[in-house]
Amino acid sequence: MSGVSEDFVTIALPKGRLIDSIGNYLSLCGCNFSFTGRELVTIDSENRLKFLLVKNADLPIYVKHGIAGLGICGEDVIAETGYEFYKLFEFSFGSTRMCLACRKGDKVSPDRQIKLKVATKFPVFAERYFHSMGVPVEIIKLSGSIELAPILGLTHYIVDLVETGNTLKENNLEIVEVLSWVKVYLISNPAYYKLNYKRVDDFVRRLKEGRH
Amino acid sequence: MDRRKLLQIPKGTESFQLEEAYLHRKIENSLLELFNLWGYLPIETPVFDFYDIYSRMMNTGTREKVYRLIDRNGDLLMLRSDITLFMAKQIGLILSDDILPLRVCYADTILRYQSNEDISHNEFFQVGAELIGKNGIEADLEIILLLVSSLKLLGISESQIHIGSRNLFGFCFSGFAGEENDSVRKEALQAIRVRDWVELKYLLEKYKPELFCRNLIDLFSFIGTGSELQDLLDGMNSNLKKETKEEIEYLIKIYAYLEKLDTAEQVKIDLSEIGGQDYYTGLSFQVYLKGVDTSIASGGRYNNLFSSFGYSAPAAGFSIMLRKVEQIAETVKRFKPAGSITFLKDEDFLVRCRKADTMRASGRIVCL
């Protein structure tokens, strides 16, 4: 955990869809900061918090190794790493659905004795889900454009995050089932929290105040 | 065979050499010497034993990481994955009233599956001490004080010991007892361990609404000093069960003793510390250190473990994950070799031998 500053509470933020919402929310709580240009590290205006801008999927790794004591990210990303974190605060924004989808009208009947193929960016989540349902399944990990898999015949189903559902519609896909709601959390490395609980609790208190 | 393939090591194993191994041995020996000074004698446990004996004593997470093998007779064996468990059986073989209380210590490798990512946990080597056959506050304090001395010896006195109680969980969640509540009880335990108060509230409201009160969340989320816990307790006295209150007062009393012994600064009462293993029955604790991303030591009281091996004796102890602390700068500074190696240059071998003897007698490191 050599990267953790003694003076700052260090927080990893995810690049991508959540960053603007996080910035706005933290601003409501009196934590003002901005990343200028290609900057990836910045300090808040009160000189108390240090923010690191990292790739969404890498965020848990930075928190796990204590480079950042805290991080803000979706449950989907946490589940894929298999790491254990403290979830200290649930944000009101950014929640989305992890869905099972297929081509319109192409739902495979459960009595068909064939092994299902599922494409996903979230193999750990998907494997756990189908395993818990006792459904044998072949999971194919893709890194993007998941919607293509059923269209091109690679798999029957996809497991993916769905916000509005527009991308699915445009690709002639439909939701078969909502598997889980994915929420956005403030997470902490457990050891970091234990050693810095007062400062971290102060920060969480500020976040709670921002909710009202 | 390809040289790289020849030199590959399986997941979950590690090797270290030369200066690193020197440091490791030196620290291990120093800790064992310290334990000896406190009256703890060494115990050596077997590398493998019958799996069935231990399987019901391990939680699911631990069971999944155990290496199993089949011996020539077809018996299922497991490699040593937790020294306390193996120690309990070995001691169980010799336990009798006249040798209690018994103080034992150990320094040994453990073998369990760790993924590439988890290898940073460095839990391959445990050094620890166990006090068997003694119950009560003095026994619990002895274990905490020995742990404090061990951390001081390692040069990491700034580490923080977080103490809690497994009993507290048992008392507060007695409504979750019984097989039918097993999975909910496990979920509640996990929610407290990962400080997920939203989940804990949900579980209580859903399955045992009569148990739910704000007090439980306030209690298990508490971290602080003895007097801070006393303040919290004073504010909720009327709502707590007698045994819950007594367990909290017990922790406050432990803290008060530590204050009198000038060691309380290194200790926090943390009621979310309810023990990582199911065999804990009372005091439980973990040690955290700045610069290390997981706890470096853990332990607690396990009064029922020996009865699984046919002899009833209370016990408490701790293990330090040695590989986690060996790389801490202060520890390295303390235990690195004293002075550099002198290589003698004289042509005559006998001269070199005599010269080296004299120099070694004065503590120098000399190579022929």
The strands making up the biggest β-sheet of chain A line up spatially as 2-3-1-4-11-5
Architecture of the largest domain in chain B, according to CATH?
A: 2-Layer Sandwich
Q: What's the count of strands of chain B?
A: 14
- The CATH architecture term of the largest domain in chain A is 3-Layer(aba) Sandwich
Strand content of chain B: 15-25%
What name is given to the CATH topology of the largest domain in chain A?
Answer: D-Maltodextrin-Binding Protein, domain 2
Distance between the termini of chain B: 37 Å
Rounded mean pLDDT score of chain A: 89
Q: Spans of chain A of 5+ residues with little confidence (pLDDT < 50)?
A: 1-5
Main sheet: strands, sense, barrel of chain B: 9 strands, mixed
In what range is the share of β-strand residues of chain A? 25-35%
Describe the structure.
The complex is a heterodimer of chains A (212) and B (368). Chain A has 212 residues and is α/β, with parallel strands linked by helices. Chain A folds into 2 domains: 9-94 and 183-210, 3-Layer(aba) Sandwich (D-Maltodextrin-Binding Protein, domain 2), CATH 3.40.190.10; 96-182, D-Maltodextrin-Binding Protein, domain 2 (3-Layer(aba) Sandwich). Chain A has 7 helices and 11 strands. Chain A has helices at 19-28, 59-64, 75-81, 123-133, 148-152, 166-170, 190-211, and strands at 9-14, 41-43, 49-54, 70-74, 86-90, 96-103, 116-120, 137-141, 157-162, 173-182, 184-188. The longest helix of chain A has 22 residues, at 190-211. Chain A is elongated and about 60 Å long. The model of chain A is unreliable at 1-5 (pLDDT under 50). Chain B is α+β, with helices and mostly antiparallel strands and 368 residues long. Chain B folds into 3 domains: 10-156 and 289-337, 2-Layer Sandwich (BirA Bifunctional Protein, domain 2), CATH 3.30.930; 160-274, Bira Bifunctional Protein, Domain 2 (BirA Bifunctional Protein, domain 2, 2-Layer Sandwich); 342-368, no CATH class. Chain B has helices at residues 3-7, 18-37, 51-55, 60-65, 83-94, 137-153, 166-172, 182-193, 197-207, 214-220, 226-236, 242-260, 322-325, 329-335, 349-361; strands at 41-42, 48-50, 68-70, 76-79, 102-109, 125-132, 160-165, 223-224, 267-270, 283-288, 297-301, 315-321, 341-343, 365-367. In chain B, strand 13, helix 15 and strand 14 form a beta-alpha-beta unit. In chain B, helix 6 crosses helix 12. Chain B is globular. The two termini of chain B are 37 Å apart. The A-B interface holds A 1-2, 4, 64-66, 81-88, 90, 189-195, 197 and B 117, 120, 160, 162, 194-196, 198, 223, 270, 286, 288-295.
